Amino acid sequence: MKPKYKRILLKLSGEALMGDDPYGINRATIEGIVAEIAPVVQMGVEMGVVIGGGNIFRGVAPGAAGMDRATADYMGMLATVMNALALQDAMRQAGVAGRVQSALNIEQVVEPYIRGKAIRYLEEGKVVIFAAGTGNPFFTTDTAAALRASEMGCHAILKGTKVDGVYSADPKVDGGAQRYDRLTYLEVLSRDLRVMDATAISLARENHIPILVFSIYRDGGLAAVLGGQGTYTIITDRE
Known about the structure:
Elements: E1 7-12, H1 27-42, E2 46-51, H2 54-64, H3 69-93, E3 98-102, E4 111-112, H4 115-123, E5 127-131, H5 141-152, E6 156-161, E7 166-167, E8 179-180, E9 182-184, H6 185-190, H7 198-206, E10 211-215, H8 221-226, E11 233-236
Parallel strand pairs: 1-2, 1-6, 2-5, 3-4, 3-5, 6-10, 9-11
Antiparallel strand pairs: 7-8, 10-11
């Protein structure tokens, strides 16, 4: 199968690592995600990954109630570093080469984000896991994904979720929710579809990077989407 995109940015929510657990990292789930990544890397696709931190931050959220927003955001960034290290370790055990780069300086743990080095890693066939969001409070990991995709010259952003595309409402709550095969950036913004935050959508639109939303839990789903098959919603400039 020939992939449609040579270089991609995979965006995963922290919640995607929880599986059926209330919070934290579910080992079987993260191994399943690595099993999706490995064949894509073997296809020759260059891949960056951005992970959220909601699965870890959810566990401390009650204690963060009323906390200063910037402080809470920095805690969330540190949670993404933990997720990135867990993903890198699972990849190592599966024989997939990965490197973590952090937007926050924690050099004893992970190397700092350096654009030129990250691009070189991608060209060498290594998966680059971008941790700590943008390194700034008030910006989401969705925005970090759009930013890193733009900096790396990625041809597409693939957002792995629990559902197989974008719906007009939560399909688990609303049985009549409409599923979209194709949307424009402006439609996502005007309908407030909450695929990614408005800053991320605008940045992807400005740099003409299509966003493909698919289920990360469907076996072979990532490879199928990259081959132009499978079930997903694509967000582009055109209808």
